[in-house]
Design a protein that fits this description.
By secondary structure, the protein is of the alpha/beta class. The chain has eleven helices and 14 strands. The two termini are 20 Å apart.
Length: 335
């Protein structure tokens, strides 16, 4: 995995305008002009601000009319209203990272019924989409975190799961896969309580984790899913003097969790570059609009999305990177 991460980091550095210009020519060979919207779960956190960078860069590099819009809060109904507005505008494609897949199914059906191409990300079980694109196999990603927690705890003790939303599909895939591995491989470990819902909010994570730690001082592990989860958890762990006693792993960015990784409060954070995910969504939308064949092994000319596996409507790449003390200062992943 470290080797894959290093290779991807190198690939990120080598992306340039020529690569994406070539991709745009391949996808837009008919010469038609398309308008493509990218709608994140919410716009106010670093993860999706990084995705916005990718969307803007793609538009600048290729000349494609791709733009970024969405709610500032994590709210499925609010996100659905943004999509309703895009439908009324008559965009050609909507690329979306659903906060709640349940909330979006009806409005995305409406979009597709009107001929709008729909590409989702972090939502592999959705029905009303053309395709979903994932940065990696979600089950493998979740198991990876539990393998690390099992190693750190010696396979013993209580742990908790955090998810942004109980209806956030990818988050629940990760923790469900992690739980299945724990039951099979680490029978001495036990999940404490139910999944903790954080609404992708660092302060909420901090508050809820602090409550759990106060109620259960013997807690040994925390697996976070939403980007701010592990940073909020780390703040609570440090305040209670439990750094090194409670082991933390999960998804995050260096800009948010780097200081906790450096001091060892967070043992490992993993991520995929949201900017590249944004570019991959747009590139895939263009290919669908141009009626190109979507097939196993296809190359979107985006690092981590160059040899995609296809199962049904789901395309999966090889785009995750682990952040530990050993590489937290690497400038290629520092955003």
């Amino acid at each position: 995995m470290k080797k894959m991460g290093l290779l991807l980091a190198v690939a990120i550095l080598t992306v340039n305008m020529a690569v994406f210009a070539t991709g745009a020519q391949d996808a837009g060979g008919s010469g038609k002009k398309y308008r493509i919207a990218v709608v994140p779960k919410l716009t106010s956190i670093s993860w999706f601000q990084r995705m916005e960078v990718g969307v803007k860069d793609y538009a600048k590099e290729t000349g494609i009319d791709a733009f970024y819009t969405g709610p500032s809060e994590g709210d499925g109904a609010l996100q659905a209203r943004f999509i309703e507005d895009l439908i009324s505008q008559g965009v050609d494609a909507i690329c979306v990272v659903p906060f709640s897949t349940q909330a979006l199914e009806p409005v995305l059906k409406k979009a597709r019924d009107q001929g709008i191409v729909v590409i989702s990300h972090e939502a592999s079980g959705m029905t009303n989409i053309d395709y979903d694109i994932e940065a990696f196999d979600n089950d493998a990603y979740g198991r990876h975190f539990m393998e690390k927690l099992g190693e750190l705890t010696g396979g013993k003790g209580d742990y908790i799961f955090e998810v942004g939303s109980l209806t956030s599909e990818s988050h629940n895939q990760w923790v469900d896969a992690a739980k299945a591995l724990q039951l099979k491989k680490f029978p001495g470990m036990k999940q404490y309580g139910d999944k903790i819902e954080t609404a992708d909010n660092l302060q909420t994570s901090y508050n809820k984790v602090k409550e759990v730690l106060t109620a259960n001082p013997n807690l040994k592990g925390i697996q976070g899913s939403a980007m701010p989860d592990v940073a909020g958890a780390a703040l609570a762990v440090e305040e209670l003097g439990l750094a090194g006693k409670v082991h933390i792993v999960g998804t995050s960015l260096v800009s948010v969790s780097g200081k906790y990784i450096k001091d060892g409060t967070i043992a490992m954070a993993s991520f995929w570059d949201p900017a590249l995910a944004g570019k991959a969504m747009i590139q895939l939308a263009l290919k669908v609009l141009e009626k190109e064949k979507i097939s196993d092994g296809m190359n979107l000319n985006v690092p981590g999305y160059t040899n995609l596996s296809l199962k049904g409507k789901v395309l999966s790449g090889q785009a995750w990177i682990d952040i530990t003390k050993s590489n937290v200062d690497d400038p290629s992943i520092n955003f």
